[in-house]
Amino acid sequence: VGARSVVQGDVPDHHVVVGSPARSVRVKPGWEETADELEDGRLPDRQDEREIEYDLPEGIDVFDEFGRDRRPPSPKR
């Protein structure tokens, strides 16, 4: 990933991406045979595929690990 690039997708293995939004500009030398081909350089977005499903048990205690008061302050009168 190039300096100051803004990545808005998944950078495929062995690709060099630059720009804002970042696009693939080439494949690292020697990796051409194994790298996935991108027609227009746009990065695929597989965010939904990366989501891990989970279930939380009933009655779980919700807490703020930093001990912050999560309620807004009362308005002054």
Question: Mind sketching the topology for me?
Answer:
Blueprint: E1 15-19, E2 22-27, H1 47-50
Antiparallel strand pairs: 1-2
Biased composition (Basic and acidic residues): 40-49
Organism: Halorubrum pallidum
GO molecular function: acyltransferase activity
What features would you describe in this structure?
Helix content is 5%, strand content 14%. It has 77 residues and is mainly beta. It has a domain at 1-27. Strands 1-2 form a two-stranded antiparallel sheet. The model has no long low-confidence stretch (mean pLDDT 89).
Order of helices and strands: EEH
User: What is the topology, as strand order, of the major beta sheet?
Assistant: 1-2
- Total number of helices: 1
The mean pLDDT is: 89
Shape: elongated
What's a quick, concise take on this entry?
Residues 27-52 are annotated as: Disordered. By secondary structure, the protein is mainly beta. It is built from 1 helix and 2 strands.
Distinctive features:
77 residues, mainly beta, two-stranded antiparallel ribbon, 1 helix, 2 strands, 14% strand, acyltransferase, Trimer_LpxA-like_sf
